[in-house]
Design brief:
Low-confidence stretches: 354-361
Radius of gyration: 21 Å
Structural class: alpha/beta
Mean pLDDT: 88
Number of strands: 9
Largest sheet: 4 strands, mixed
Number of helices: 11
Strand order of the largest sheet: 6-7-9-8
Shape: globular
Length: 361
């Protein structure tokens, strides 16, 4: 399902995090079930005869809607946050607003892919987020995943801090959305890889995740990635342990499908007749659920080359500075298979956007 990124009043293009239309000034709110923006007045909007309210975190830039009969005034994405900074810590809450924006984009993409979103308060091991700042009380915050809970350091929303870490760790790409996509990969490995046959196949492709993680971590930070790692892995971090290899591959799957979906939604395509770069058109799809991973990666290869050229024309580095070698493509094929084999029914997926299905906290 594609988001309709236009103001309902003036039809001006708007981004997913828009609160007020930059063209006509209308106050907008996002309705997840229909993936559309609606105008709101006094925190309310009526959609198909039902009353919806703006999320109680709108003051912290959340633009999602909550149905009138919800037990909570918070939207689905906000309810997935288990821990957040204290109310008095306004500096950290400003960083939280930026991180929550990235999380809403993640939640929306997971829903579009038809992946099961079971909340931490609905079932032990369900998905949840601890969004806390290492700058608040000087406590050490380790980004990671454990038993369904993803921990994020809000300090990484600071561009200078995140860029310094990216350079120090030798990473070509480091964003808050990237962190969220990687960590949710750990969560979905346990959710989507089910049964002995699936785990055997997963271990054949990524390695045995039962190997000591502590030993792998120490080895990685002591000696770094193995020589010629580019022939088998999407990134240096993926070489550390099979868990990280799967999570990195899953994150890149979300990078690729999310960017292609956006390109499709706004009508970007490569016209062979006008460019001469290739002989056939490239038309990104909103969904690759019924397509082969070969088509997905072929479309991405050409589109990412175009995006990289655009970035270079502005003096930036490549938008996607990664190479999809044959071994990595095989890993993508496994992820594509388990993702497309685990869709939920449309009515079930849409129910995830309305609180009574999940509000048992």
């Amino acid at each position: 399902m594609s988001t309709q990124p236009r103001c309902p009043h003036c039809r001006h293009f708007v981004y997913l995090d828009t609160l007020d239309c930059p063209e006509c000034g209308a106050s907008l709110a996002y309705h997840m079930p229909s993936r559309q923006f609606f105008g709101q007045r006094k925190g309310q909007v009526r959609i198909d005869g039902e009353l919806w309210h703006t999320c109680s975190n709108r003051g912290w830039k959340c633009n999602w809607l909550v149905r009138d009969d919800a037990e909570s005034g918070r939207c689905l994405s906000c309810r997935l946050t288990r821990r957040r900074p204290d109310a008095a810590d306004t500096v950290a809450l400003e960083k939280l607003a930026k991180t929550e924006e990235a999380k809403r984009r993640l939640v929306l993409q997971l829903a579009d892919l038809g992946l099961p979103l079971v909340a931490w308060y609905d079932r032990p091991g369900g998905l949840g987020f601890d969004l806390i700042s290492s700058l608040s009380h000087g406590e050490r915050v380790t980004i990671g995943h454990a038993n369904g809970i993803i921990t994020i350091d809000l300090a990484e929303s600071l561009d200078d801090r995140r860029e310094a870490l990216r350079v120090r760790l030798g990473e070509p790409y480091r964003t808050m959305l990237g962190h969220l996509r990687h960590e949710v990969g750990h969560y979905f490995q346990n959710v989507l890889v089910v049964g002995d046959e699936a785990w055997t196949r997963c271990r054949e492709i990524f390695g045995d995740e039962r190997a000591s993680y502590r030993d792998a971590l120490q080895r990685h930070y002591r000696t770094g990635a193995p020589e010629h790692w580019q022939a088998s892995f999407i990134s240096e971090y993926a070489t550390m342990h099979p868990w990280e290899d799967f999570a990195e591959t899953f994150a890149h799957y979300l990078h690729i499908t999310g960017t292609l979906q956006t390109a499709a939604a706004i009508g970007i395509r490569l016209d062979a007749a006008s460019s001469g770069i290739r002989d056939t058109d490239v038309v990104p799809r909103e969904s690759y659920e019924d397509a082969s991973v070969r088509l997905l990666l072929s479309d991405w290869e050409w589109m990412s080359q175009a995006f990289n050229r655009i970035n270079r024309s502005m003096g930036f580095g490549d938008l996607y500075p990664f190479e999809l070698v044959p071994a990595v493509r095989s890993k993508f094929e496994f992820v594509h298979d388990i993702v497309t084999r685990a869709p939920v029914l449309t009515r079930e997926q849409e129910s995830l956007a309305v609180p009574e299905e999940l509000e048992r906290a």
